[in-house]
Amino acid sequence: MSNIFDSFNKLLGRQATDAEIQKMYRVRDALDLKDNDALWVIAMTLQSYQTEFDKIPGAISKASVDALANIKSVADSAISASLLKAQMDMHAAAVSVFGGLADEAKAVVINAGRDIAAVDRANVEIALKRDNFKLLTASVAGAVVLSVAGFFWRTCG
C-alpha cells in the first residue's frame, strides 16, 4: 500500500494529509481495491483534482476582498482630490473677487483664506472618515460666511 501512497504523494507534489489518506482508504474499502488495481490511478487523479478545486473558493474570496479594497482606496483618493480641488477653486475665486482691494486688505483676506483652507482640510478628513459629506458642505459654507464677515468687520469695523 505504501507504493500507492508514494505515487499519490508524487502526484500531489507533497506529502498527502491525513484527511486525503483517509479518503483514499475509504475508496479502497468501498471498491475493494488491491494494491495493483488500475483503478487506483483514476482514484488518485480525482483526489488530486478535488484537492485543487477545494482551494478555488478561498482564492476567489481573497481576490474579491483585495479588489474591493483597491476600489475603495481609489475612490477615497478620487473623492479627496475632488474635494480639495473644489476648495482650491473656491479660494481662488474668493481671492479674485477681492483682488481690487488695498494690499493690507488683500493680506487679511489671503491669511483668512489660508486659515480657512487649513480648517477645510481638517474637515475634509473628518468628513471622509465619517462618510458625512453634508458636514463638509456646511463647514465650507460656514467658513466662507465667517471669512467674509470677518473681513468686513476688520475693514468696516
Overview of this protein structure:
- The protein is mainly α.
- It has two domains: 53 residues, no CATH class; 85 residues, no CATH class.
- Helix content is 85%, strand content 0%.
- α4 runs antiparallel to α5.
In a few lines, what is going on in this structure?
With 157 residues, the chain is mainly alpha-helical. The protein contains six helices and no strands.
> Could you estimate the helical fraction of the residues in percent?
over 70%
User: Biggest sheet, in brief?
Assistant: none
* Record field, number of beta strands: 0
- Count, helices: 6
Question: What tags apply to this protein structure?
Answer:
157 residues, mainly alpha, 2 domains, 85% helix, rod-shaped
Task: Outline the fold blueprint.
Elements: H1 2-12, H2 18-31, H3 39-53, H4 56-97, H5 103-130, H6 133-156
